[in-house]
Predict the structure.
Amino acid sequence: MSALRAVKANARPFFQRHSAGELKEALRKMYLIRRFEEGAEEAYMRGLIHGTMHLSIGQEASAVGSTMALRNTDYITSTHRGHGHCIGKGADPKLMFAEFFGKEEGYCRGRGGSMHIADVATGNLGANGIVGGGLPIAVGAALAIKKQKRDDVAMCFFGDGASNEGAFHEALNMAAVWKLPVIFVCENNKYGMSVSTERSMAVANVADRAPAYGMPGVIVDGNSVADVAEAIAAATERARKGEGPTLVECKTYRTRGHSRSDRNRYRTKEEIDEWKAKDPIPLFEAELIAHGLATEDEVTAIRISAETEITNGIEYARTGTDPDPNEVTRDVYSSGVNS
Amino acid sequence: MSREITYAQAIQEALGQAMEADPAVFLMGEDIGVYGGAFQVTGDLVHRFGEDRVMDAPISELGQAGVAVGAALAGCKPVLEFQFSDFATLAMEQIVNQAAKLRFMLGGKVNVPLVMRFPAGSGTGAAAQHSQSLDAWLAHVPGLKVIQPSTPYDMKGMLLAAIDDPDPVMVFEHKLLYKTKGEVPEEAYRVPIGKAHVAREGSDVTIVATSIMVHKSLEAAETLAAEGIDVEVIDLRTLRPMDTATIIESVKKTTRLACVYEGVKTLGIGAEISARIAESEAFDYLDAPILRLGGAESPIPYNPVLEKAAVPQVQGIVEGLRNLVTGRT
Ligand SMILES: Cc1ncc(C[n+]2csc(CCOP(=O)(O)OP(=O)(O)O)c2C)c(N)n1
Ligand SMILES: [Mg+2]
């Protein structure tokens, strides 16, 4: 039975272009991200993991809508709020949990933690603890792609706050001057920690900055998978054809605090509730059902399967291998030479 | 009147008193306003002094450092908070090429009276980009003063001295010290920059320690005292200008020296202290090789066991000192 057969004629191109299977996989990834973060939060609260973490709950549509356009040989660079990008690009949640738990099985062998998860095999060059740190790195990856005459792209995730770092401006300029295949994905969640975009920039949109560097700046509803994915598909096509970079600004919101220590003093409960009502997951679910691309039962099954995968992932991580304390200096250099 | 407050409260009190006393003083940084600072150091100061004097800046470390330099040149006394000392790396241009050198390059015609505050160190599970101890980097630069108070008392007094100082002063604050308590006078007072402090007197061996390692060394000294080893602990307090005289006097008395610091061991502050002793009259008094206990030759790992293993701990200090004094290696 063709999935496309069932799609309502009035559905937007995104729903026509992707198979029901692909769309249901997107929903599954959104659930995986949500449950991964809820699971991580709970493990932290129970004292099972230490450090801090930055949750992207409420921002799943931009992570999944963006990475849908990518293949394994494309790259991403991510941020401190990167669990969604990581799962979107194809990482295995149980290995992410192992990293959270500081185990040898983790993506960084327990050395990196939440803020440094990378999965080189799927083209994920890593989350970053430095705001703006990934921007020039994505440009460099795109430069390599161009030199090697590949038609891959580098997708660079960053926040509204990061667009105030010098690295943002330098990266955009170089990407544009050299016409590199970069898609700059700004997840504008209205705040850089406690400082609103109104208080940190004199333009209304991060996308307004793109034309200054000679590239298109596109604004989308960051809570709509379809909206994000359509803009990203166009930007990716442009990049693959060698026509240069695009900046896509996803307007979204993190419903959790900035990190574990946030007391939410800089925003109102009303604002948080208003955005909770725009939760991207039920929105996407409703669209899939309305367009005849999934049934209620299928949606429930997807949610349950994501939950099971997360529960098993936590169990896997808990029982992982602890690093040997005598191995602190391993992997500092490729040769093992040190001091 | 003196009472017990935390290290973080001591900073906040010094900042508040400096702003009350001098309208030229203002604070800038990321999330230091309503959020109260990532480590709640500025706390409620924004409510007392307003957003013009407790300024939330965009996430632009290089820019903020430069703005502090410019404001200092033009008659203000900026106190810039970095959210983590690691982000000094983004601002190095303005700190090293501008703040440190302007007075010299302009033939002494200007002052750059600014203060930069750096929450530093490991132990919070924040991994390699949020746990570094870069104090020795900045102490390598002529033109900067670098302080590292280890107690609430010294913190308040040295921060007030730093704000008075006509030269740029870099303040390293260990994150694990923020909640530690100590006696602090309510009124404003100054503790001089450039003077080390003998935190514990002893006769068998001298430890020169910085920041949190002062406390770990004092703890180790208690254990060693029970074994009959009498340790003198010097809290260096200021990296630049360094109080060499106090260290020389101590080493002449104890005849043994250990340096304990959290920054990476190689080419760190211990190398400088050792060299100064090797170059001084105290060299002839040494009865044992100098011992350096510093951070591992690696970035700070995330895993908590590895994280602890990457910096000196009390047990390691006890063992190192015991071997130093008993002549074992
Ligand atoms: C260079 C640098 N400065 C400051 C920080 C501390 N910090 C971490 S995340 C963050 C806010 C970033 O805001 P934004 O880019 O909008 O991303 P969001 O957290 O909203 O996803 C800040 C200030 C940092 N990690 N790196
Ligand atoms: Mg943001």
Remarks:
- The first helix of chain A runs from residue 3 to 6.
- Chain A has one domain: 3-315.
- Chain A has a mean pLDDT of 96.
- The domain at 3-315 of chain A is CATH 3.40.50.970 (Rossmann fold).
